[in-house]
Amino acid sequence: MGEQMGIKVGLAGAGSIAFGTAAVLHEAGHDPMLWSPSGDGTAALAKGAELHAHGAVDATLAPRIATDAAQLARDNEVLIIALPGYGHKAVFDALAPHIEPRHQVIISSHASLGAVYLMQLLAARGVTVPITAWGTTICTGRRQSGTEVKVNTVRSRVDLCTVPDDRSAEGLSLCQTLFGDRFQPRDGLLAISLSNLNPQNHMGIALGNITRMERGETWSQGQNVTPKVGRLLEELDLERLAIAKALGLEVKTIFEHFHLSFHVPVASISEMNQKMHEQGNGGVGPATADSRYVTEDVPYGLVLTAALGRLTGQPAKLHEAGIRIFSAMYGRDFEAENEILRALDLHRFSLDDLKRAAKTGVLHQPAKV
Ligand SMILES: NC(=O)C1=CN([C@@H]2O[C@H](COP(=O)(O)OP(=O)(O)OC[C@H]3O[C@@H](n4cnc5c(N)ncnc54)[C@H](OP(=O)(O)O)[C@@H]3O)[C@@H](O)[C@H]2O)C=CC1
Ligand SMILES: CC(C)(CO)C(=O)C(=O)O
Question: Which catalytic reaction applies to this protein (predicted)?
């Protein structure tokens, strides 16, 4: 995998996380390249402007820019998928024909068994590579313009797993080489899916603040995790933890999540968020109802957790209610919007099939009856 430093990393995406991750990689001496699927996200950088990161990372860099998926794969040894779940299928479809055995793929953050979908595309070409799924992102932040990103935090811990699981050591070692000793290996893709706290947290945050979002207000996210919103997040967390327990999987609690990601002492979730607000990394809430907090996290997050709740006999009633309430508010069927679960035809598989696929990355066709 090349030299210890200066690894060429291709990022699919040119939004907040792709920009922030490029800055983190640059600071660690690596060589990032960005690919904006439409070209819009990198228009200014492609004309020669520099990318400025400020906040938890202060850096100015001139990342390489890819014109298409083929170039991103050709010019890099590592590919990081760094865009919302609703773009994953299109990006996997575009990249898969160009991925070769020399590559490693990281999905940041992994959504709805996307790693299984990508493995399936690669298997059709006879290619296997280590695909590492992260439960979240290495940093948080907001892209401020085509050349600027504010990085709010660089996380101390990110949960990961690699499929197929016999390539786990390669996946972990690569992540450590790129980003340092920040990774907590977890037991397969179901653990990683249940390690992503955004869907449940964003459900509570968006429900509590939907009028602010719809009216386009500017509002502090941390400050608006008020005691009642905080309690809803804690109750949502209990549903997720019950499913993980039924599956025999260890995942972090919401308290550990905020502590490790935002460096605040453990207290109630509302108190931890107030502290984040005070120390300046509480973030800014979405200023539009057309936000991935709903359009990504409901179909690609809550829907999978709710399905796992049904399969494990641990019904996630609040998660289920969230899917219905947001679908009613938006006049959309968010359950039907998940392109990856639809392509995998999840309903045909048993819990045992999913448990196996969580390790191998392969969903075997159920036997015909
Ligand atoms: N920002 C944060 O602090 C955090 C983000 N995350 C997660 O990280 C991931 C990335 O988030 P973030 O960078 O903030 O998101 P952004 O909305 O900033 O990502 C924008 C990028 O996504 C691309 N994109 C959007 N829709 C599609 C599509 N349908 N097909 C292909 N590409 C698409 C855009 O393409 P184009 O360039 O063509 O416009 C652009 O490059 C998400 O899963 C998010 O939930 C998790 C925790 C924190
Ligand atoms: C703001 C933050 C870090 C917490 O909700 C986030 O997860 C996001 O932007 O997706």
Answer: (R)-pantoate + NADP(+) = 2-dehydropantoate + NADPH + H(+)
Percent of the chain clearing pLDDT 70 (strictly above): 98
- Closest ligand 1 atom to 12 CA: 41
**C-alpha–C-alpha distance, residues 146 and 41, integer Å:** 6
Q: What is the CATH number of the domain that holds 94?
A: 3.40.50.720
Q: Among 162, 194, 226, which residue terminates a domain?
A: 194
Q: Pick from 194, 220, 243: which residue ends a domain?
A: 194
**2 in a structural domain:** no
pLDDT tens for 2-61 read 444 599 999 999 999 999 999 999 999 999 999 999 999 999 999 999 999 999 999 999
Q: Determine the structural domain holding residue 79 and report its residue range.
A: 8-194
Q: Which pTM value belongs to this model?
A: 0.96
Task: Decide: 338 in ligand 2 pocket, CB within 6 A.
Answer: no
Does position 158 have pLDDT exceeding 90, yes or no?
yes
Scan for tokens 């979405």, then name that residue. 286
DSSP 19: H
* Cα of 209 from ligand 1 centre, angstroms: 21
Q: Quote the pLDDT of residue 4.
A: 46
| CA of residue 147 to ligand 2 center, whole Å | 21
Environment class of 213 (CB within 10 Å of its CB; exposed 0-12, middle 13-18, buried 19+) = buried
Same domain assignment for residues 123 and 16: yes
User: Strand 59-61 vs strand 148-154: parallel, antiparallel, or unpaired?
Assistant: unpaired
pLDDT class for 364, splitting at 50, 70, 90? confident
Q: Do 215 and 347 have their domain in common? A: yes
The pLDDT of residue 1 is 46
CA of 198 to the centre of ligand 1 (A): 13
- Domain count of the chain? 2
ipTM for this model: 0.98
Instruction: Please state, in angstroms and rounded to a whole number, the distance separating the CA atoms of residues 327 and 331.
Output: 6
Tell whether 367 is covered by a domain: no
In a domain, 255, yes or no: yes
Task: State residue 311 phi and psi, 5-degree precision.
Answer: -65, -30
Nearest residue (by CA) to ligand 1, atom 6, is: 137
Distance 17 CA to ligand 1 centre (A): 7
